[in-house]
Amino acid sequence: MTPTLLWNAQEARIATGGRLSGPSDWNASGVSIDSRSVAAGDLFIALAGPNHDGHDYVKAAIESGAACAVVHKIPDGCDGLPLLVVADTMKGLEDLGRAARARTDARILAVTGSVGKTSTKEMAALVLSRQGATHWSVGSFNNHWGVPLSLARMPAASKFAVFELGMNHPGEITPLVAMVRPHVAIVTTVELVHAGHFATIEEIADAKAEIFSGLEPDGVAVLNRDNRHYRRLSRAATAAGVTRQLTFGSHIDADARLLDCAVDPKETAVFALLRDGALAYRIGVPGVHWAMNSLAVLLAAGALGAEVETAARALADMTPPKGRGERHLIKAGAGTAELIDESYNASPVSMKAAIATLAAARPGKGGRRIAVLGDMLELGEQSAALHAGVAQAVTAWNIDVVHTAGPLSAALRDALPEDRRGIHADDSAALAPLVKAAVKAGDVVMVKGSAGSRMGRVVKALQEGA
């Protein structure tokens, strides 16, 4: 398969306002900012960060097959190599992103929200890709470098594109959405996430509402009708000039209304009303939160010009992104156990959703439902109370044992009934071998925590020898 041409030398020069040095007859089929993963034909952007300077790896990137390197200084030993010299490489990346957006006729969706951004983006990418060439940001490339990088990688001939926009401070979404200029914007929900950087949850809602500032004329806002900040978001959208708003949720007035949802260990069955039409479909991932966000995806797909019933059918093929519900069989004693990997990140609302999903799992004979939970970070002064509050979900969903790691999770351990308390350790590294030794055949084990708590260590330990 012939790689898609993204940039030739002259296009990249014009987009960035830079100058070409060395061979200038190159064509780039990819864009990279990491010399360790450069593929043949990539345009390597030498970003200068606080800990590493991409200029130190320009020669290695070219030797690995990069078509050209974008630099703001010519490194020693790189004379004669194919270079595009710009005033600042970060600005050069942004310029490439803006140029990629300007040259495409793709219908574009942007997704933000306190939780569910990546899973919603992945669902949207799946359903749209069944109806035309679709580009989407990989992983959680949702910040000041991830968004322009994702834009710069967008083929001009794309029919649809999906971008995730994240933030943990006010004012961060505004410049991102100005680059993306979406036709449709989803706000999945507003919850107490990154609370350490905001005085109130209303400030978090206002920061998410920045996404409306970049909507194209006649753009559509898709909002969670069940969220208590719905009216605040709706007013913000109106103030930004958004004249068309669609809503999803269980609320009777929602445009896409969840009527019923059945969760089993492998999938989720959804029965919904989209405006006045009934729609039944399955999602290949278990969880009520997946069902809810799928409604936002279907509304967005329709607003982008896709066929909604076809989009709904495609959701049966959905698989969870890495660290967001992946399931694995692991060795445990003389048999096997099931591992649910939710280790990518955590907040109070996503922690409770993961516990509800664990409750729907079916342990083997004599098996238990076990939660292995790490610290939830950036929760501010309410951190201890929010950690302790997770205990209510553990009890409500009848989880058998909860192992915890980290100083913040000690508040959760203390709030648990004694018969649910498992092992507690200072960090995930200390907890991992203890959990591995405690898991028995037939158990179902769910692992979750904020990225900074590094609960992936526990996942790795459980999978060793699986």
UniProtKB/TrEMBL annotation:
GO terms for biological process: cell division; cell wall organization; peptidoglycan biosynthetic process; regulation of cell shape. GO terms for molecular function: ATP binding; UDP-N-acetylmuramoyl-tripeptide-D-alanyl-D-alanine ligase activity. SUPFAM superfamilies: MurD-like peptide ligases, catalytic domain, MurD-like peptide ligases, peptide-binding domain, MurE/MurF N-terminal domain. Pathway: Cell wall biogenesis; peptidoglycan biosynthesis. It is an enzyme of class 6 (ligase). ATP binds at G113, S114, V115, G116, K117, T118, S119. Residues 111-301 form the Mur ligase central domain. Its EC number is 6.3.2.10. Residues 29-73 form the Mur ligase N-terminal catalytic domain. Residues 336-450 form the Mur ligase C-terminal domain. It is found in: Cytoplasm. Keywords: ATP-binding, Cell cycle, Cell division, Cell shape, Cell wall biogenesis/degradation, Cytoplasm, Ligase, Nucleotide-binding, Peptidoglycan synthesis. It catalyses: D-alanyl-D-alanine + UDP-N-acetyl-alpha-D-muramoyl-L-alanyl-gamma-D-glutamyl-meso-2,6-diaminopimelate + ATP = UDP-N-acetyl-alpha-D-muramoyl-L-alanyl-gamma-D-glutamyl-meso-2,6-diaminopimeloyl-D-alanyl-D-alanine + ADP + phosphate + H(+). GO terms for cellular component: cytoplasm. Belongs to the MurCDEF family. MurF subfamily. Involved in cell wall formation. Catalyzes the final step in the synthesis of UDP-N-acetylmuramoyl-pentapeptide, the precursor of murein. This is UDP-N-acetylmuramoyl-tripeptide--D-alanyl-D-alanine ligase. The gene is murF.
